[in-house]
Amino acid sequence: MSQVGHATARALLRRLAVEQAECRVPSLTAAIVRDGRMAWFGGRGRVDGAPPTAATQYRIGSITKSMVAVVVMRLRDEGALALTDPLGEHLPGAPLGHVTIAQLLSHTAGLTAEPPTDWWERTPGVPAADLLERVGPAELKHRPGRRFHYSNLGFALLGELVARLRGTTWLKALTAEVLDPLGMNATTPRPRPPHATGYAVHPWADVVLEEPEHDADAMAPAGQLWSSPADLARWAAFLGGDTGGVLCPDTLAEMHEPAGVEDGDTWTSGFGLGLQLARAGGRRLAGHTGSMPGFLATVWTDPGEGTGVLFMANTTSGLSGTLPTDLLDILEEHEPRLPDEWQPDPADPGLLALTGLWHWGPKPYALRLLPGRQLSLEPVGGPGRASRFVPQDDGTWLGLDGYYAGETLKVAADHLDLNTFIFTREPYDPGAPVPGGVTGWHG
């Protein structure tokens, strides 16, 4: 099961073998996804006396959250809710109902990290009604919107939101709307053969302790699911853009946008809408990590490169933390992606006439024509505001990103009007309607 060369596969397997041996992991699997397909799989250790395979199930913990988030975004796209809606609008009487759905998705609602129950990952769960009764003002730790604060409780509330709006359980909605259409038939709420057993490895001896497994009930949307490397590879492909019709690509891109930063000024990790984000080795990654007693898992995707990486292990703790990015580094070193071939692209003469130099006051900007009739406006030689624009039915252009995201660009014969800023062909062209007027250049 490999689309990479022998030398690449050997280097990837060696890195996996070192991790399994040195970190003393009962079993460890990993996979590389490229262009929507599993390009390499490796497994080390033993599950029931045999090497793990791409069909072996492991608990995926909080990766469950990213899947629940997709159902929430589907509800948004259908018009059943808005991300700015307070939770209480859809769950009448819900505790802390003033926090918004977007804040819950991005862990910026200020909720406590863990629910007001016993250690929920190691004890049987309580029903949703019971959990909701236990939640009160004490579970609000920060002003909503103030900062990133990871909350398992927040995703329990989102799971109940999905259940109420869909008129079924969160799991049935997820299965019908996401897992089944993507062919992820090995992703289940409880284990089925073949599956790994979860272990804690003693820190000072080579012995293991079996960890408990149970139904988390109301907390299940925060980390209930089991999956296989093959299924998680399909999820990596989904997060990389192969949505299979389950989600609008623009909505997936919205989920990838940073909504909260986890590590302050350094900004190496953060959160979008239901997705963890990371910057590592020049890559911009999106995905999710997962842990439950006895299990660790991670899936990252780099949409810009069309690659993804994942690992699944049956140990409570102890992995190095660099395995996924190391595997991506090995792939890049041995089999770097070739750039797409450049080919001419026919251009509308009217759009072609717009390209070239424009000036915001005295500052030169370049307007370029991109594929799909998009425009790019960016400063020439130096810092400044840059954005891409897409055409609208009324003849205007809508900003996609950067400073002008969501703003309107209007094109006139002698100037561009970008949300009241006037761009002219010549610096402060006196023939254009520059606000404040132009008195003329002088020495």
TrEMBL record:
<dbReference type="InterPro" id="IPR056008">
    <property type="entry name" value="DUF7586"/>
</dbReference>
<dbReference type="InterPro" id="IPR050491">
    <property type="entry name" value="AmpC-like"/>
</dbReference>
<dbReference type="Pfam" id="PF24491">
    <property type="entry name" value="DUF7586"/>
</dbReference>
<dbReference type="Pfam" id="PF00144">
    <property type="entry name" value="Beta-lactamase"/>
</dbReference>
<feature type="domain" description="DUF7586">
    <location>
        <begin position="348"/>
        <end position="425"/>
    </location>
</feature>
<feature type="domain" description="Beta-lactamase-related">
    <location>
        <begin position="20"/>
        <end position="318"/>
    </location>
</feature>
<dbReference type="InterPro" id="IPR001466">
    <property type="entry name" value="Beta-lactam-related"/>
</dbReference>
<dbReference type="InterPro" id="IPR012338">
    <property type="entry name" value="Beta-lactam/transpept-like"/>
</dbReference>
<protein>
    <submittedName>
        <fullName>CubicO group peptidase, beta-lactamase class C family</fullName>
    </submittedName>
</protein>
